[in-house]
Amino acid sequence: MAQRYVRVRTNQKQVYYGLLRLDRSVGVFDAPPWLGGQLTDIDIKPDTYSLLPPCAPSKIVAVGKNYLKHAVEMGTPVPREPLIFLKPSTSIIGDEGAIKYPKQSRRIDYEGELALVIGSFSKGEAIGGNSKDLSPELARKIIWGYTIANDITARDLQRKDGQWTRAKGFDTFCPLGPWIVRELALEASLKTFLNDSDTPRQSASISEMVFPPEILVSYISQVMTLNPGDVILTGTPEGIGSLVVGDRVTVEIEGIGSLSNYVID
What we know:
The strands form four sheets. Strands 7-6-17-11-12-14-8 form a seven-stranded mixed β-sheet. A hairpin with a 4-residue loop joins strand 1 (4-10) and strand 2 (15-20). The protein contains five helices and 20 strands. Helix 2 packs across helix 5. The chain has helices at 68-73, 136-142, 155-161, 165-169, 213-221; strands spanning 4-10, 15-20, 26-29, 39-44, 49-52, 60-64, 83-87, 92-93, 98-100, 108-110, 112-118, 143-150, 153-154, 174-181, 189-194, 202-205, 231-233, 241-243, 248-253, 257-264. By secondary structure, it is mostly beta strands. It starts with a strand and ends with a strand. The protein has two domains: 4-52, SH3 type barrels, CATH 2.30.30; 60-264, Alpha-Beta Complex (Fumarylacetoacetate hydrolase, domain 2), CATH 3.90.850.10.
């Protein structure tokens, strides 16, 4: 099993980055691991903490229509270059967190996605701790790890507004987690399930992306500086659908695990 990097809050309300062990204890880092944090001699025992979203990004950059079949189901062509938008950091919740159905909307949709966590360069590769104007080769090196996201969308508001800020930006509209892994197979599967069904609503390989991760990171870095801990959502495959109050939605990515959240009024 791949090492799982977590962010936790102890029962005493202390927040740590750490490494989740098989017995569910957590070895504590002295700083976020993508900033060079090292394991300390502090261990947190099981049942004395809760999992938080695995990072606290300065920004979340998301990508639209990055799977061919999803673009088709939306009735639009595949963009000729990555279609990017922002989600606020206030939209993040963790595994088992509640998605709040906003009163302004009559339809919210799930969108299971692979998320990238940005790191920092080793000494000599770049100046400073952030990233700008990266080639795809350098972009590949700046991807520190991978986690799971659900790009919750108020679909009716997206269509009404003609732009996506409100539809994508409500509090709780970016479930993220439960942890980060450093490596992921190119052919890893992504599946989204609703409630107790064994049949996935979404099922695809991440290799089906139109623009792969290093191209996305390179493209975004031509627009804005990427800071360590920032998150990039890489797009959702076909099979999006609506959620109602009481639903439980689970996104699974092979090699990472699963992210589950439920919908409340």
